[in-house]
Design a protein that fits this description.
Elements lengths: L1 E10 L2 E11 L4 E5 L6 H9 L5 E6 L2 E2 L8 E5 L10 H11 L5 H10 L13 H14 L4 E5 L7 H14 L5 E5 L3 H4 L5 E6 L2 E7 H7 L3 H8 L6 H10 L1
Parallel strand pairs: 3-8, 3-9, 6-7, 7-8
Antiparallel strand pairs: 1-2, 1-4, 4-5, 9-10
Helix pairs in contact: 3-4
Length: about 240
C-alpha cells in the first residue's frame, strides 16, 4: 500500500501541495484529475522523491529509498529516457537494472504500438516518445505505476487502444495512478477518481459509487469544482455589450 500523509510542498511562498493525504491500494487503476497547476505533477514527483516536502510517504509502511524505489515506475510527457540510446538498448539497460523487468511485455507493447527497436530514442516523434515512455513504465516490473499526461501527441485511436491494453495486461497487484485532463475519455477505464484543486484533494470516489448514484464522472468533477456553466454565456453577453 502506498500511503501519503499530510504532504505539503512549497515553491517559495506558494503551496503546490497543501496537507495532501491519499492511499493507493494494490490493484487499483486511479485517475488523478485537476486543472493546470493543481498539483498533479508535484504529487507524483513527491512520491518519487524528486522534490522535497513535509509530511510522510510510505510504501508498505517503509519510507521510499533506494531499497524499494524499483517498486515505482514513472511515465511522463517530459521524457525521462536516454535520448541517444535506442529502444533496444533501453530494454537491455532495464533488464540489468530492474530484476522484475518484463521483457515479454516490453516486446508485445512495442509491436502493438508499432515502435522501432533501433535508432536513437530522440528521433521518435512526440507521440512515439510518449508511447515508448509508457511501455518502459509498464514493463519495468513495478508495483505502482505513475503516469503523468502520457497521451500528449497521440490521437484518440492510439489513446483508446492504450486504455484497452492497459486493462488487459495489468496484474492484480499492479496499481496505476494516471494523471490526465481527458476526464470523459478515461471514465470507462478507471476504477477510482481523485480530484485535486489548488494543491488539495477535493474529491475521491469510486466509479461504482458514481454508477449507483446515476452520476457521470464529468458531472461529479463539475460539482466538486463548483463549475459555473453560465460563465460562458455571461462572458459572451459582456463582450456583446
Amino acid at each position: 500500500m502506498l500511503e501519503i500523509r499530510d504532504v505539503t510542498k512549497r515553491y517559495n511562498m506558494k503551496k503546490a501541495l497543501d496537507n495532501v493525504s491519499l492511499t493507493l491500494r494494490p490493484g487499483e487503476l486511479v485517475g488523478l484529475f485537476g486543472e493546470n497547476g493543481a498539483g498533479k505533477s508535484t504529487l507524483m514527483k513527491s512520491i518519487l522523491g524528486f522534490v522535497s516536502y513535509t509530511g510522510s510517504i510510505t510504501l508498505d509502511g517503509e519510507r521510499i529509498t533506494a531499497k524499494n524505489i524499483a517498486r515505482l515506475s514513472y511515465a511522463t510527457s517530459e521524457h525521462s529516457f536516454f535520448p541517444d540510446l535506442s529502444p533496444a538498448g533501453h530494454a537491455q539497460f532495464y533488464a540489468e537494472q530492474f530484476p522484475n523487468f518484463n521483457r515479454k511485455r516490453f516486446d508485445v507493447l512495442m509491436d502493438f504500438f508499432g515502435l522501432p527497436r533501433g535508432g536513437a530514442a530522440r528521433k521518435l516523434s512526440t507521440g512515439q516518445k510518449n508511447r515508448f515512455e509508457a511501455v518502459l513504465a509498464l514493463s519495468q516490473g513495478a508495483d505502482y505505476i505513475l503516469m503523468d499526461e502520457p497521451f500528449a501527441g497521440n490521437d484518440i485511436f492510439n489513446r483508446e487502444d492504450f486504455y484497452k491494453v492497459l486493462l488487459g495486461i495489468l496484474g492484480e497487484h499492479e496499481t496505476v495512478l494516471l494523471s490526465t485532463h481527458l476526464i470523459e475519455e478515461v471514465s470507462g477505464f478507471i476504477g477510482r477518481a481523485v480530484l485535486i484543486h489548488q494543491g488539495r484533494i477535493c474529491g475521491d470516489v469510486s466509479m461504482s459509487e458514481l454508477e449507483e448514484r446515476g452520476e457521470s464522472l464529468v458531472e461529479y468533477v463539475k460539482r466538486e469544482w463548483n463549475y459555473r456553466a453560465d460563465r460562458i454565456a455571461r462572458a459572451i453577453d459582456e463582450l456583446s455589450e
